[in-house]
Amino acid sequence: MSLSRTFPECWGHRGASAAYPENTLASFEAAIREGAEGIESDVHVSIDDVVLMFHDPSLDRTTTGKGQIKEHKWYGPDGMEHLTTVKEPKQSIPTFAETVSLLMKPENLHVKFNVDVKVQNDPARLFSLMHTIIAAQPNWQTVLAPRILLGLWHPTFIPHAKNHLPYCRRSYIGVDIWVARTYFWENVEVFSMSFGSLTTAEGEKFRTDCQQGGKKIMVWTVNDADSMVEAVRWNIDVILTDVPRKWLDLRAALQADYDNTAAKHGRLFLWTTWYYYQPVQSLLSRLLKARLENIAGPFTLVNAASIPEVGLVSA
Predict the structure, then answer these.
(1) Can you list the pairs that 162-167 forms with residues at least 24 positions away whose Cβ atoms lie under 8 Å?
(2) Is residue 314 part of a domain?
(3) Which of 22, 176, 219, 276 has the fewest CB atoms inside 10 Å of its own CB, making it the most exposed?
(4) Are 238 and 11 in contact (CB under 8 A)?
(5) pLDDT per residue as tens digits for the range 10-31
(6) Domain for residue 311, yes or no?
(7) In this structure, what CATH number is given to the domain that contains residue 246?
(8) pLDDT tens digits for range 126-150
(9) Domain extent at residue 143
(10) Which residue ranges run through the membrane (predicted)?
(11) Least confidently predicted of 84-93, 111-120, 306-315
(12) Using one digit for the tens of pLDDT, what is the confidence trace for 182-214?
């Protein structure tokens, strides 16, 4: 048994999304039922101000609907409330309010919630709507708020998060270590990084700096056993996975007999997989930054004092 080593928490990426339609209550419930310590999901806003748990800006890939979420109403005869997933078992799209209600059930008060904030959103509008829902919960400041982790891709979202949701922890989500250091280091507690970004020499140094600087590291999306064990070797804090049960079972085996279990999972893949080479990771970083800036504007550091303050509801 490994007594001194710590093991990453298990957070369900879009729930237990390998088995259930992603970002649905059924998927979230399955991840929690399997024993995940947290769930991760994404948010978009309808034209009538309903916050939805949904990954893509478009309905096309995963539902029976078509078009951009921001151009559709939630309520009404043609509203998105009537859509279902393409994947079986067919599910409706959950709202942020419904997901919060799930987390507020007595049996789920231990579950953490990583909200991936997509850059297609207007941050002030989104965070204001989220605050209204959060603050409507009983004892929200002590029971709910500490469990919510805002995941931010774009630095201009930081001051809006500080203003509208100051009680929520913040994380950087991305693949770019330079962006993480330059724009987010002083403004977040957690770095949610792609597995590939942490495999390089630069990634190794970043992991060390985070651990020495008291920053937590989450890694995504880790679905194979070799990568899961490597994340343990790196002393990662959270593994985001589509297959929570797989990581939970492997974690139990590692806790029972670390040396023999870890020995079954080699490290050769880190050198034989072209995707993990530094030039490839650098190219991916540049491409993603360009895409994010094309959607949400240039990466800049915005002073929170320049954002109009919002009065918050007391518990």
Answers:
(1) 162/187, 162/304, 162/307, 163/124, 163/127, 163/304, 163/307, 163/308, 163/309, 163/310, 164/123, 164/124, 164/127, 164/128, 164/130, 164/131, 164/310, 165/127, 165/130, 165/131, 165/134, 166/312, 167/141
(2) no
(3) 276
(4) yes
(5) 999 999 999 999 999 999 999 9
(6) no
(7) 3.20.20.190
(8) 999 999 999 999 999 999 999 999 9
(9) 9-306
(10) none
(11) 306-315
(12) 999 999 999 999 999 999 999 999 999 999 999
Tokens of 3: 């007594």
Per-residue H/E/C for the chain? CCCCCCCCEEEEECCCCCCCCCCCHHHHHHHHHHCCCEEEEEEEECCCCCEEECCCCECCCCECCCCEHHHCCCCCCCCHHHCEECCCCCCECCEHHHHHHHHCCHHHCCCEEEEEECCCCCHHHHHHHHHHHHHCCCCHHHHCHHHEEEEECCHHHHHHHHHHCCCCEEEEEECCHHHHHHHHCCCCCEEEEECHHHCCHHHHHHHHHHHHCCCEEEEECCCCHHHHHHHHHCCCCEEEECCHHHHHHHHHHHHHCHHHHHHCCCCCHHHHCHHHCHHHHHHHHHHHHHHHHHHHCCCCCCCHHHCCCCCCCCC
Residue 183 counted as domain residue: yes
If pLDDT is split at 50, 70 and 90, which confidence band does 310 have?
A: low
Average pLDDT, the chain: 95
149: amino acid identity, one letter: L
Q: Identify the residue whose tokens are 């994340």.
A: 231
Using CA atoms, how far residue 9 sits from 6, 36, 111, 115, 219, in Å, is: 9, 8, 11, 17, 11
Number of domains in the chain: 1
- Backbone phi, then psi, for 41, in 5-degree steps? -155, 175
Q: Is the pLDDT of residue 315 over 50?
A: no
233, part of any domain = yes
Catalytic residues: 13, 55
Beta-bridge partners for 40: 13, 114
Query: What does the pLDDT read at residue 305?
Result: 62
Please tell me the total number of residues recorded for the chain in this structure: 315
**CA angle 202–152–81, rounded 5-degree value:** 140
